[in-house]
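Q: How would the structure tokens look for this protein?
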Amino acid sequence: MPETFVERAGLWVAVELAAFLERDALPGTGIPADSFWEGTAAIFARFAPENRELLAQRDRLQAQLDAWFVERQGQAIDPAEQSAFLRDIGYLVEQPAPFTVHPDNVDPEIATLAGPQLVVPILNARFLLNAANARWSSLYDALYGTDALPGAPAAGGYDAARGAAVIERARAFLDEAVPLANGSWRHWDGGTPELADASQLVGRAGDNWLLRHHGLHIELVIDRAHPIGAGDPAGLADILLESALTTICDLEDSVAAVDAEDKVAAYANWLGLMQGTLTARFAKGGREVTRALAEDRRYVTPEDGELVLPGRSLLFVRNVGHLMTTPAVRLPDGSDAPEGMLDAIVTSLIALHDLNGPRANSRAGSIYIVKPKQHGPEEVAFTDRLFDAVEDLLILPRYTIKVGVMDEERRTSANLAACIHAVRHRIVFINTGFLDRTGDELHSAMHAGAMIPKGEMKGADWIVAYEDRNVQIGLACGLGGRAQIGKGMWAAPDRMGDMLSQKIAHPMSGASTAWVPSPTAATLHALHYHAIDVAARQAARAGEPVASLDRLLTLPLAGRRNWDAAEVARELDNNVQGILGYVVRWIDQGIGCSKVPDIHDVGLMEDRATLRISSQHVANWLLHGVCTTADVDAAFERMAVKVDSQNADDPAYRPLASGIALQAARALVFEGLEQPNGYTEPLLHAYRAVRKAAG
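A: Here is the predicted structure in token form.
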């Protein structure tokens, strides 16, 4: 092996990864280095062949789907015939008898509380700290600085009229969530708040008051020396909301990690979080600022006792799925190791620093891992056995490692109860990832016919059934009060007014959490969990019949649609612009998730899931003759100019024509049929590695 690798128990490990693990991660865990490497080698030897076989099974099933759909092109799909075929090939499995999940030692933020969830790229320490510290945030700031209220602050300092509107909206919120025994919060002039429900007053910190509603805390900041408090009869300077209860630190869709250097940087940030030592230094307002993790918050209860509340969001870590391998570790046969297996071992090892320390993250003593992109119950059961082996390696009690299952692939959503059953002792989270789910829908039925335009997908009946089934099956399996049922991301971080009007649908559905793109969005989304009693909504939905499998499996085909040339061009431009805008940052700058301007210059949070949809959609239209290669080439030419102009102010930006990012973007479309399950990672990783090698 090259000098950049060292041998450990028959494995070839990148020098920087071996050094990080032996110097930084292993000390303090009680795990000797020799034992760690021997156990790690044994896990790879046992599970890597099975991982490869599971991926081969994906390919076999896709080939059978392709052949079946090719035979029926142009014909209506008979639901009964499709279901029989899917059962015959093992795509659909028998559903388990009724059961209840029973994970032990689950923190209340996951088991019993309902509130917002952040997802943050693990390679960015500043973003990680912002997310972890977003457990408590200012409602005044969130309302003042966004379009959550009509209009915008006037330029040139504090806008008093805007401030008055913020205070009015915030007092109205208090009237709804924690009403006074008499009168309105609009007229509160200080002193001990006399609430209609006295039990909602739970603590005090100095002059500040702590209130509780639906399990979430509200802190009234009393400061008569503050510019806002000085003009308030009660001295109320701000209202802090308990906002992001949980955060997913992401090693997957939102990062560009293609080699050992990237993986070590990611793991080092996770270690800093688990040890409580992570900091970030950056320039702000002309001075250097150092950010660190927030401390816990302490209050005196009405009975003169002490109440300690977490100062930080409870952290999950999202590992990569089963598909990708990593050059950070080479197996004895010279092949790259499965990346998801390395993630499981290393992120769990690092979490020992939390379990063996003051438990600043999980007070219940658990490790929380989200596992994405699993196809069906066989793959979920594989994860369960893998986590068993990692627990044995790290000398942990069985089911210490908890799992979140992303319900984001067609075979998983069609067999969701069986997937949950496979990890019933450790599951703490299911979530509808409608973006990847749409990408898998496109690829799974690629040969069935041309698909409807991307903008029509959200209204398709299969998505409605998908979202309903996720909650209905989760509740039937006993996740209510034991685990999170989650919903997807609000992708427009600058459109908080729209978010406030629309995202209340998630707690209304009975979901106990939903993804938001920023700490500010988490604070505003927290208002929804005060407006809706999620436990009551779950109780109301618990007896519902599960939406039919036939609805879920209904394909979003366009049928014999007469395509207008202008409509086709608009759709291609929309897809291609999104592909280019995301890929150029991924390849050239290693940015896995960012606010990317769409074709209308609206900033949207983009990651690989959105890229999967756009690239597969164009590939589908090419396959079925809705557009031609010349049409797509023309769209790439038009949109390269558009994306270059949108990034003109970025000094790190390279015009598309001068780099390999354009090649990568074109490959995602023109080689889209051959990509495993339509995933974008293989091509992105290959082109990013070339870009890094070039400097």
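The CA atoms of residues 585 and 654 lie 9 Å apart.

Residues 33-71 form the longest helix (39 residues).

Upvote if useful.
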